[in-house]
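Batch 3, record 17
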Amino acid sequence: MAEDRALTVRALLDTVRAEGRSTLTAPEGKVIADAYGIAVPGEELARDVDEAVAAAARFDGPVVLKIVSPDILHKTDAGGVIVGVEGAADVRAAFHKIIANAKAYNSAAKIDGIQVQQMLPPGQEVIVGAVTDPTFGKVVAFGLGGVLVEVLKDVTFRLAPVSADEAQTMLDSIKAAEVLKGVRGGQPVDRWAVAEQIRRVSELVTDFPEIVEVDLNPVIATPEGAVAADIRVILTDEQPKQRRRYSRDEILRSMKRLMQPRAVAVIGASNEQGKIGNSVMRNLIDGGFAGDIHPVNPKADDILGRKAYKSVTDVPGEVDVAVFAIPAKFVASALEEVGRKGIPNAVLIPSGFAETGEHQLQEEIVAIAERHGVRLLGPNIYGYYSTWQDLCATFCTPYDVKGGVALTSQSGGIGMAILGFARTTKTGVSAIVGLGNKSDLDEDDLLTWFGEDPNTQCIAMHLEDLKDGRAFVEAAQATVPKKPVVVLKAGRTEAGAKAAGSHTGALAGDDAVYDDILKQAGVIRAPGLNDMLEYARALPIMPTPQGDNVVIITGAGGSGVLLSDAVMDNGLSLMEIPEDLDASFRKFIPPFGAAGNPVDITGGEPPSTYEATIRLGLEDPRIHSLVLGYWHTIVTPPMVFAELTAKVVAEFKERGIEKPVVASLAGDVEVEEACQYLFEHGVVAYPYTTEKPVAVLGAKYRWARAAGLLGGGR
Amino acid sequence: MAEDRALTVRALLDTVRAEGRSTLTAPEGKVIADAYGIAVPGEELARDVDEAVAAAARFDGPVVLKIVSPDILHKTDAGGVIVGVEGAADVRAAFHKIIANAKAYNSAAKIDGIQVQQMLPPGQEVIVGAVTDPTFGKVVAFGLGGVLVEVLKDVTFRLAPVSADEAQTMLDSIKAAEVLKGVRGGQPVDRWAVAEQIRRVSELVTDFPEIVEVDLNPVIATPEGAVAADIRVILTDEQPKQRRRYSRDEILRSMKRLMQPRAVAVIGASNEQGKIGNSVMRNLIDGGFAGDIHPVNPKADDILGRKAYKSVTDVPGEVDVAVFAIPAKFVASALEEVGRKGIPNAVLIPSGFAETGEHQLQEEIVAIAERHGVRLLGPNIYGYYSTWQDLCATFCTPYDVKGGVALTSQSGGIGMAILGFARTTKTGVSAIVGLGNKSDLDEDDLLTWFGEDPNTQCIAMHLEDLKDGRAFVEAAQATVPKKPVVVLKAGRTEAGAKAAGSHTGALAGDDAVYDDILKQAGVIRAPGLNDMLEYARALPIMPTPQGDNVVIITGAGGSGVLLSDAVMDNGLSLMEIPEDLDASFRKFIPPFGAAGNPVDITGGEPPSTYEATIRLGLEDPRIHSLVLGYWHTIVTPPMVFAELTAKVVAEFKERGIEKPVVASLAGDVEVEEACQYLFEHGVVAYPYTTEKPVAVLGAKYRWARAAGLLGGGR
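Prediction for the assembled complex:
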């Protein structure tokens, strides 16, 4: 059956293309729809009045009759269309009237017959379509029909093909989703039938890459089904560019040698301060890299006390990484030598390639690398850090706080911001990697590696484009069940995308498509740079929540209100506190304190009240996450609060009870030290903000849902 | 005419209330609509067939005929309604058919006649209404009709009454505003007619406070007009509670003595460390207050080296402020003495009033204060700071960075966060005021004062509710043309509002109403606590932009993309750079750098490139604001960038050229010091974020528009 339909459509498309057309006619559209089970109105050609009556009888309800004549193009003008005809007598009358009208209109017209088309019942208009996205390829779209939705742009996208379940999620992903469930006493539409239309369109465009666009507009959705009133199919001659793809094993093999090298060569190593080749050497040495460091420089005998080689080919033994610190124009020949030496990774710090318009130079080095099987990082990057190896292969400064987050950036400036932020906040890092022009290695390679890397608990990526959206989604979907993937997609807005275009020459995809498909991949999208950095800092130290019940415990009622706002803003749920639990909380708080949620312990309370309520929050298995609101008072100073909270959290951890605990500290400057202490003891804490602690908790929940660790997942 | 209509409606409403009804009948609704010029379909009662024909002839187009009989309630069931009747013959036939149907349905029914009602043409359905908001009183609402909008909650609100211009802005304030302008080739609706319906409804509810709700649903808007198909009016018996309101002069007089006192008494002053009365005394003294400080304590002769008085009545000379640092139960009697002494302001630090359920105690002190004309700040507050007077009347710690922002908070915890944030960022402050339970003084009093205070350039307020929304809007509208007013409204979400309810006992208003009306008042709403604090820090040091043209100058292309996103997110416009200006920029940047906007000077550039481009940005009068993206390199280190930027900005300032300049610094930790330096030199700068600098610029623009200093205002 699947083969039959493919043969039918293949034959049809070949005919259309042989005729040099890129658009299908309505009857051709119907052939395709029928082949793929896309529901469209029934229609038949009736050559005489009896055939018309018989055809109309086969359709449920009223029909439309239309003249079919090669000589009558404007059917309506010719009186050749009558709608809403029902019953044999009316069909007969309408048939004769149309024939008469047509003859009166053009007595010489050749009449092939009359088309009898099923009339669709009134229902909710929806739109189902498929487009070819420059980043993601075939993508299906779903939205409500009508003017309002066009104005409000309430449409959702998924990578094609979609499963029936995935298609169903699209119905819930539009803002006006309620409409489909029946509002104001309206009937809900047949969700399964709508989802089937989406699924079948997604299969069609997947099977036939030359179909660039399909539009079912509108689909009439009713409680009984979903039928496309119209199908539009557009073809292209363009072949999508094939990109060399590496297998998962190949990626892991070369990435392991990149991130855990035993020997590194620095091409362009230098004794001269201020040169990049000097900075890289010093950072490698000062960073404490335990493997071999081989300077390569034709003009020096030793560099920073290490024997220098004229060429990388002279370096003895195996080398895992060659770091390039030479001008762009010398890269190609040095890369040839790297290839001949069999070094699997070239880290290209120099700029002066595609980003300055030197596309040809970049293509040249890519060709050399492919010939030798060398993988390229860059060019146009600051280098990379692999902290657990004490490896600082960059021209910046060493970074030594080992921890669980791997950070990558497409832009060098953003990379520097990552470094500064990490240093000032003591963020525990497993790697920082510059991707620059992404001439070869890109986010999917890194995701594949970091997904397996036991030192990495979270991956955070700044990106302006994806070279291959599908490869990224595949890598993300393989990684997300294991650890959170955070993405800061720059160029979200039209102006941003335009700026990205001039920056990297990359075609920025439509953000709505990015947004939905990154969500489909289970990726946590950071709304801004600072958010990405905070997620990166906080996610690895937060345990995974075991359920949706969030409880706020606050000394400052004012913080409780703002924290509640933040909980809602982040799509989290304040637990409805059961009576027995409420009574337990009340035992610890003053009579005028407010139990419920937030639990308002009031401002003047001693450390013991904070401790008792936090303890209860961790103890009760019905509570899954705690949000603490601290108020600086003389009775409970900031560090007292920090120490008691850290102590209780550690105690429960030892007993095997781990829940996310985040805190907002309102107070004088001492709260800053308290926050740093808390962060270092596994409690995410921020001063002067009620938004950030809840935003990072929200990010953790988004991940837990995407990873299937909580209900309500994708 | 205005009086006539008032008399007509007054008489009608009196009759309705005399009958004990709270809902008006359709004919009564029509009487009111006609009185206020609210367009509704024409209708007439026809007692015989000739009257029906005559009535139908008076209306344009088709009509609806409806039986009018006290004995037939369900007209449709009785066959008593026929729609779409046009022409004398059809009217006659329909008239007779309805009479026949009615008799068949109930032969004993008394028939008063047949109502002939004009049929409305098809058009865009919109909703116009008015409600009585607990905070703001009479409020008009406007939205599109139909199921979709109900689901998407696309409605906008304004304080009633509205002018014709204000009503017009409502048509643009809904998300689906485009629909009214005509999309997909549709015709635009008659905006004036729609606005008139809004304006007239707003007048009606203003004139008659007992009308709690009016609904015109739907109004059919067409290119030719806007007619309400239905009008619904609901009355109440409740009298709105009258609140004592002070005149502007009275407020300014007492506020001046509160904020610029010559003598302060501390009731409950103490020598005992850890007591609030001790902290307040010490802060007053350590803060350097130059006026008189009189401790009051019946059990001490002197406190911290100052003569103590048994009672405030014993204090010699005039006293401007009495700060209360005694338990709640002693407040009333001490307040009597304050009243007798003629002290105009009582600052009530103690808690134990409405916030702990002691409403009666609070009412008692309010009554005492009203009797004596004493104004109350609090109770349940940390006190207040008036920095330019070196006045720290709080139990916290002194704060001495004088500057342009006045900050107020309803919650003590938030007040402490304000203090800590201000201290760590060296925010220049004119005052910090705790409002607590707001038993008397509230945001409108403070706005009135700070609006006049020459030391205050910006006012930032945290609030959970407004006691009197109209008084606040009035005060804000008087202030906004002079200086920005920032509001953090806590309890935005349902959960937040619930938490606010348990916190202050205040009824949190619907946030959509708050949002629209704060906008109408020209207030800048901060989305969160940290945003409010950053706005407060940045707005006073930023000059007012003279126009909409924002230009980004960036060393980091990656920052340029994110800054462009932020510009769009904040509703700002990236200037379209004219060719001559583009050419001027290009002179300074490398050939592969991107001119346009962002101006991408590329990463490796020396200080002179930053300087030349910033100089050009300040020089060219077509550019109104600069957003700088700095990338930390060896060539241009952070402090070099900071100093050159500050120098250029200062130089132009001396020449009388001031534009907002904000900067995002991407780099290692040295950028933090550079940002602090820049801030202190009038350039708003942040490390590790591209969002914040643009967000505060956006806030400044929102204010400039609201203040009428730019186009596109409210």
